[in-house]
Amino acid sequence: MAEFLTKSRARNIFYGGSIFFVVVFVAMTVHSHKYVVETSTAGMELSEAVVHGKHIWEENSCINCHSLHGEGAYFAPEVGNVMTRWGVLEDPEDAFETLKGWIEAQPSGTEGRRQMPRYELTDEDIRGLAEFLRWADQTDTQGWPPTEAG
Amino acid sequence: MKYQSQKVAYWYFLAALALFCIQVIGGLLAGWIYVSPNFLSELLPFNVIRMIHTNALIVWLLLGFFGAAYFLIPEESEREIYSTKLAYIQLIILLIGTLGAVGSYLVGIHGGREFLEQPLWVKFGILVAALIFLLNISMTVLAGRKTAITGVLLMGLWLLSLLWVFAFINPDNLSLDKMYWWFVVHLWVEATWELVMAAILAFLLLKLTGVDREVVEKWLYVIVATALFSGILGTGHHFYWIGLPGYWQWVGSIFSTFEVIPFFLMMSFAFVMVWKGRKNHPNKAALLWSLGSSTVAFFGAGVWGFLHTLHGVNFYSHGTQITAAHGHLAFYGAYVALNLAIFSYAMPMLRERAPYNQVLNMASFWLMTGGMAFMTFVLTFAGTIQTHMQRVVGDYYMEVQESLSIFYMMRFGAGACVVTGALLFIYSLLVVRRDEIIAPGPANPVPGE
């Protein structure tokens, strides 16, 4: 082993192998990119409202309490399927009203319960956010999450 | 300390320690909010505290890496740093950016993607600082002796800076956003940072054990090869449920299983080197942190990562407290402990005195590591219950969380231990000025470096 695996051979394996895996990874990424655009997120149009909602989601750093498709802070409920959980996935108007009602009722002030801060959002912002969450909910996530609870 | 310009590292380490302090206190606050949810909820909401906790972690670890590079590259290259002035400018840019980011979070300006919430101007600042760093370090390495350690370290630092470009790319399509986001997040901590970690560990073991450089460097190549071979396609374990093709479930499962190997090798490497080494280096604390880092990294990143990485398991455990358990132990073992190892090794030299009060330093190791281990166990139990209640039975999130409160209390206790340990570490490194408490061991068969 000691004679077969010299330092320079180990070095060549490291560089050569790494380049190989990078190439494979890049090729799979290209395919995955196409798959996302054409298949898994093609369920709903990526409208202006959805894009606006995504920015609202980011500016308010919702991800640092909630999780979205399982990624985030795990301090507050999963929202990747929240529109399904609320039963408003199919109806933009219901989705907007429900989300608006929820956001404007915060913080609940209930002692001993986690508090969601009050965000001053316009109707346009809330509508965008609702559309963004409906859009995300329609992504083909390979069947995840296993239950409606998220 | 053989080279004057190594002194630059001292300021990097100080800045890193200050942010380390902020990071653990932020973590403790966040842990307390889990216990007492109304605490600070109007003044400083959880999401801001969490952002400070994670961002401070990333920046202080990077400052530690930069400092470590400035410390070890002159010794490896056998020459002074290309420009100490550039190194200080880089540090100032990073400090202004860090303070700017923390300030903007506190007044409610934040955004972007998780961990990458920094305002755009801060992101540019980080990019400029990284470029200055790469120029400075590359010029130093090119002009001096080239070793495997500098080669691997430089490659890791170049690649991690290159991947930072994806912090600027934020597609409107959430699934694409998530995919490219992992290019920074996963390929940093499970690929390029591992190169940096292995290089620094190799340097430390070379110095502390006196084992032949040829042996150390061959191991280094083998370790980083397994790290990249498994880590690059291992990215797939984040691609299961975000809208990407189903084949990632197999690619991710298989390659992330292999991700245990580099960590196992690093742990074996550290122990074998110490065992083979004939040197009785007086800096026992640095040795303890080096061995501890590779061991905890093996359990935190390797074992705890593997626990929930197979797609059949991850389908249920994804995004539960099991992920939090793994994240904490992995970061602590692989990167926090390693940084503290190089600080423990370098600080006495940078301050030009013998290793001092290692008893306190080693006590802080056991406090922090014990606290982290307990936190990991507690969160793993909480996560297992959560997985069952929420993902199998289908109970709602907040009900499940309420039944986990006992675990969150224990986690807070563990967190308090970690913070105490961290403060003790900083104290032992910076404040204590007495002579060595324990006498050095018997004369060294090999002269110490």
TrEMBL record, chain A:
**What are the Cytochrome c domain coordinates in residue numbering?**
48-137
Instruction: Print the keywords alphabetically.
Output: Heme, Iron, Membrane, Metal-binding, Plasmid, Transmembrane, Transmembrane helix
Question: What is an example of a GO molecular function annotated in this UniProt entry?
Answer: heme binding
Supply the gene name.
norC
Classification of source organism: Bacteria, Pseudomonadati, Pseudomonadota, Alphaproteobacteria, Rhodobacterales
* UniProt-recorded name of the protein: Nitric oxide reductase subunit C
Q: Name one Pfam family in it.
A: Cytochrom_C
For this protein, the parts annotated as crossing the membrane are 12-30
Q: Which InterPro entries match?
A: Cyt_c-like_dom, Cyt_c-like_dom_sf
From TrEMBL, chain B:
List keywords of the entry alphabetically.
Electron transport, Heme, Iron, Membrane, Metal-binding, Oxidoreductase, Plasmid, Respiratory chain, Transmembrane, Transmembrane helix, Transport
Q: Where in the cell is it found?
A: Membrane
- Has UniProt tagged this entry with the keyword Protease? no
A Pfam entry, by short name? COX1
Q: How does it sit in the membrane?
A: Multi-pass membrane protein
The Enzyme Commission number assigned here is 1.7.2.5
Q: Which domain of life is it from?
A: Bacteria
User: Cross-referenced InterPro entries, in alphabetical order?
Assistant: Cyt_c_oxase-like_su1_dom, Cyt_c_oxase-like_su1_sf, Cyt_C_Oxase_1, Cyt_c_Oxase_su1_BS
- Taking the record's annotation, the residue ranges forming a coiled coil are none
First-tier enzyme category under EC: oxidoreductase
The family this protein is said to belong to: Belongs to the heme-copper respiratory oxidase family.
Report what the protein is called: Nitric oxide reductase subunit B
